[in-house]
Amino acid sequence: MNFDVSEEQQLLQDTVRSFLEGECPIARVRELFESETGFDPALWKGMLELGLGGLLLPEEHGGAGLEMIDLALVAETLGYGGAPGPFLGHSLAGLALRLGGSDAQKQSWLPRLASGDVLATLALGEEHGAWGPEQWRLPAAAKLSGEKTWVPHAAEADLLVVGVEGGGLSLVERSAPGIEVEPAEGVDRSRRLDHVRFAGAAAEPLAKGVAAAPRLRDAGLVLLAADAFGAGAKLLDLCVAHAKSREQFGVTIGHFQALKHQLADMAVDVEPCRALFWYAAHAFDHVPEDAERAAALAKAHVTERAMQVARDSVEAHGGIGFTWECDVQIWFKRAMFDRAFLGTPSVHRERCAKLAGW
Amino acid sequence: MDLSYGKEYEEFRGEVRAFLEAQWPPKDDAAGSRDEQTQRFRRLATAEGYLYRSVPRHYGGGEQPPDEIRAQIIREEFARAHAPGEARGIGTMMLVPTLVEKGEEWQKQKWIEPTLTGEIRWCQGYSEPGSGSDLASLQTRAERVGDEWVIHGQKIWTTNAHVADYMFCLCRTEPDAPKHAGISYLLIPMKQKGITVTPLRQMTGGSDFNQVFLEDARTPKDWIVGKRGEGWLVSRATLKHERNSIGAAAQSAGLFQGLVELAKATPRGDRRAIDDPEIRQRLVALEGRVRAHEYSGYRQLTVSARGENPGLIGLMNKLVSTNIGSEASQIALDILGDDGLLDSSQQAILGRVPRGGNRHWITQYMYSLGIAVAGGTANIQRNVIGERGLGLPRDVYADRSSGK
Fold first, then answer.
1. What is the ipTM of this complex?
2. Smallest Cα distance from A226 to chain B, Å
């Protein structure tokens, strides 16, 4: 029995955390939050130098050959730090190629994704919440025509992994003619979203895309749960720090049970979620029969708890909590992204119910 | 990460399983009543080192080096074989660890073994009508008169007081000392004329608790654990024995499984309750809490097996399971529909059984509220999480002169 992170995993998290503290402190997070594109090439390059471009990619293709739990622990740390950038889409696009690509496709793309020479992203969503492979209606063809919604950092990406009708995946190079990218004005300005319209854009199907797509969804759900846990933990820390410093009636407000109990309930919301996303990440690689349901359950539960904690955090901060200046809004919106992206908690709860045979 | 226990521990599991296959259940022609067979089995299992592992052998325990994972494997295998584990009860759970740690040699000799076998039974005299969360304000007085303590006062919420042979009891013996320093830990025979026990009836109709009136009750002068005025610290000595983080999570998981079965078995119109979209949503939402609790239990087990403190999560187990129990019972009431009109209390009081319905869940609906209060209310748990877990300042008005 060893249900804990290893020393190496701890070290990986510490490395990413101290990188963010140095290169992307809260002042920089806020600058990027308010910037035009939300994308900082230097910051992303720094992350790539830490190896974050290819944690799940095979070593033979320049990756680190790690497992989903390692990637999820990094996602948690980025969530905690509110780190802006294209990590989510790039990591999932790389995984799509690893799981669904032919040898030639892997050979061609994975080394460039691992190094970050190519920035990739993932275009899964379609109108009206059609996130799942079984819901994709963009016709599969050598030339794609139609729309994908909520694509992370499509504006900066060089390569798109696109979900198509029949549940398969296709590769589209951003430089190909017939692609139009429109900013989606996503709520989380630390991870920008775009809508992408294809008008006869050249596409190449991933050889085993149909088999890879459901696994890709599981992976995305795990990473969103991990990010949401990081955001929830950060919000709790912000609230505790506020309770220990803000004074009213001559004492710090953390003395008052009304607030103390609210913070305790927030901790009870957040802290057990850690083990839930750990398990889902562990199951992705080691418990195949439970991986799909564990990912859906973790996404539904953790993102909803994080969202609740975010709402409570505004209240726990009082008037200042409602302002743009207060850092709570950064992680509040991070939690909103994690909750809605790839489908809301209720969608995944219904999937869990079906997967249990209820 | 690895959710298996590893080769060495799996071999140990094999040993436990082989023991259980040979010894439980008793053969059809085994001698004695079921109680006697159970006691005989417990002695054998204790001799193997499977039960009462923290109690030395010469006091009748199993005496094993601390090993959280072996302890967990033993619990799993005993549960699987439906074999009797350690006798549950306030005597084995609270008094025995206290005596092991703080008792005089003759006290250990006299009381530990018969408590473990179930020959003698105990009740706990802590709470009083005016002293609940603020336990150290207790007013039951004990005075030394000749070779005896003479005790006056009242205890409440006393489980099993009506059947217990003895009570371990916190009494004020030093009225002039600060409140925590004026308390002693006395052992008192229950069968005497100075003690009157009256049952309390719960809202469910059942009677698990009692009030105990002590009027000129007596106990010998040396039936005290620790010195005079040390009773508060003696009573705290057992807290660290109450770990078993997985136990509460396993109960939550069992409760959840029962709820799913109920939803499958209960008709709703021409379908089942579990086909109702709202019930499905609420069940999976609850399952998120249940699994998070369960996996957090594995994490705590891993950390404590290394001899480290699990930190924040370790302070939450009671509140998390209370929340789960509360939500489960509310979902159950919605699943039950019209059966929520049934009264389950008259069965407990008069033995009258109403027609139909699932009274177990109706009782559970109320009982979950009792669990939220027992052993420290949910609000006290929130104080502990806030102060010890999050490092928030202690309550401004609280008198905590013990320091601890």
1. 0.96
2. 13
